[in-house]
Amino acid sequence: MKGNVLTPEVKENRQAGHDIDPVFLNRWSPRSYKTDPVSDEVLSRLFEAARWAPSGSNEQPWRFIVARTQEDKERFYPFIAEGNRIWCEKAPVLVLLLSKTISSRGTALRSHALDAGAAWGYLALEATRQGLVTHAMGGFDPQKAREDLGIPSEYEPQIVIAIGYQGVKEELPEALQEREKPSTRQPLESLVFEGVFSQK
């Protein structure tokens, strides 16, 4: 599986400051996709991983709307920003991640977006283990998605996710080819503070 050892492109662009599993570095967000389909079994493994994400009071507020057929994907295209459509239309799977904003007790669920984000993280890591790539998009119209897909008011659209097998960067528009590599991260000391908040 792809997540077990660092891929050459990751080795070239990323280096962990501490010893962690390679899957965390191998997960990145390519824009070039092959049109090869993702099997039901492999796709189910991604959602199974997401199912086991942590959530406040075990509410499990995440929901996924999956588009794999051309008909279903064409329902997604109108609410996805043009800059994302340029590349994501080749992806064999598009997913809209929702979070339920009301708890099972009928109260506002404060952690709904955080919990849905945890489910997305689990899905993305399992996708890497399965030899797939994923790319989350915030560039979409949530209200249009709500209208086009019949989403009830208590669910909040969060991100659109492209899922598939990585293609070659040369198939992307030239401006995107330059960006088609794993990104780095801020140093740990700028993210973790001891005792009180700090700006460095």
UniProtKB/TrEMBL annotation:
Annotated family: Belongs to the nitroreductase family.
Protein name per Swiss-Prot or TrEMBL: Nitroreductase
Keyword Ion transport (UniProt): no
Domain of life of the source: Bacteria
Domain Nitroreductase: 26-84, 88-165
Keywords per UniProt: Oxidoreductase
GO MF annotation list: oxidoreductase activity
InterPro entries assigned to the protein according to its UniProt record, in alphabetical order: Nitroreductase, Nitroreductase-like
